[in-house]
Write a structure and sequence with these properties.
15 helices; Rossmann fold; 2 domains; about 350 residues; seven-stranded parallel β-sheet
Length: about 350
């Protein structure tokens, strides 16, 4: 029986792809163990999905004390893996994976890596040369890999929640009562940095709410809801919330999405063949992620300083069916299939 150790953590962008694959391993009768930190969100998210979880006391390598903790965690993990005897290990980037992957090298346990972003993270850069295979989300990653290592890289897309592979636009529009003549726009700026997107919407609010052909679904971000809406009295048919639990339903139903360019978001847009206006953060490689869609003519990119212009473009674009259709068909060419299934096949699980 396969016994797979998953090492991941820090952010949802690292954790949710790991959970998608882990669920598939469990369905196939394999045993799963997660190793992360005691300090980040994985300590809560992973046990909620009924997986075994072990937390290490590690932090980013920014001080002598954090280096000492990393060394201690590595020896602790060597001892742990000797006891657990996994058949393989898969890491999802971030400093959290370092002690587990070092232990895998010492114990000669085969390991795999999964990279969510177009630009490979530092931890995966350290370890890809000795990995059995590296699963990448986007082909744009490959040109930055030395030729002699490219054969172990497999373009799979990012593992997504299973529901993204079964959504139907017309069915979701009916559920949300979006009328045939209405053009749907979904705005999901995220809690971090959503403020400038919210301000742009506020400036155009009267135009949006009085346009009977536009149906806006706007997530302000958890910390920004009151500030974004306290002056508004007329909401018309718009739906405004701090965040949406049914974001997958909404993304499937609408005609255009205005959003950031996190790796999972880009993969969701591709899977749902959804045209987008992208406003990437100025850091963490989001611009490179956004380029994947813009180069394919499936999205348009605007900087944080161009948010007003981005919203104006969205309000015009959403009514141009031929261009939206063109962008959607281009997004379709980027689809790779169910990434978790592909990864399990490559791992021979």
């Amino acid at each position: 029986m396969k016994k797979v150790v998953f090492t991941t953590g820090g952010t949802g962008g690292h954790i949710y792809p790991a959970l998608s694959i882990a669920k598939k391993v469990r369905e196939k009768g394999g045993e799963v163990l997660f190793i992360g930190t005691k300090h980040r969100m994985e300590k809560d998210l992973v046990p909620k999905e009924n997986f075994r979880f072990i937390g290490l006391d590690v932090f980013p390598l920014k001080s002598p004390s954090s280096l000492i903790k990393m060394i201690k965690a590595t020896f602790q993990t060597i001892k742990l893996l000797k006891k657990e005897k996994p058949t393989e290990i898969i890491g999802f980037g971030n400093y959290i994976t370092i002690p587990v992957l070092l232990a895998a090298i010492v114990l000669k346990i085969p390991y795999y890596l999964q990279e969510q972003n177009c630009t490979m993270g530092q931890a995966n850069k350290y370890f890809y040369k000795m990995a059995k295979k590296v699963f990448i989300a986007f082909e744009n990653t490959l040109p930055n890999i030395p030729e002699k290592y490219r054969s172990k890289f497999v373009v799979t897309g990012n593992p997504l929640r299973e529901e993204f592979y079964t959504k139907n636009k017309n069915e979701e529009r009916k559920k949300l009562d979006i009328k045939d003549n209405e053009k749907g726009i979904l705005v999901i700026g995220g809690s971090l940095g959503a403020k400038n997107i919210n301000e742009a919407i506020s400036k155009k609010w009267d135009k949006i709410v009085n346009d009977k052909d536009i149906r806006l679904f706007w997530a302000t971000g958890k910390d920004n809801f009151e500030q974004a809406t306290y002056r508004m009295r007329n909401f018309g048919s718009t739906v405004v919330k701090p965040y949406f639990d049914n974001a997958a339903d909404l993304m499937a139903a609408v005609d255009l999405v205005i959003c950031r360019a996190g790796a999972s978001t880009i993969s969701e847009l591709i899977e749902l063949e959804k045209p987008a206006i992208l406003i990437p953060y100025d850091f963490v490689g989001q611009k490179e992620n956004a380029d994947v869609l813009e180069y394919a003519d499936a999205a348009k990119i605007f900087s944080n300083e161009e948010v007003d212009k981005a919203l104006e473009e969205a309000l015009e674009l959403v009514k141009q069916d031929s261009i939206l259709g063109f962008m959607s068909s281009n997004a379709k060419t980027l689809k790779k299939g169910n990434a978790a299934n592909i990864i399990l096949k490559e791992m021979e699980i």
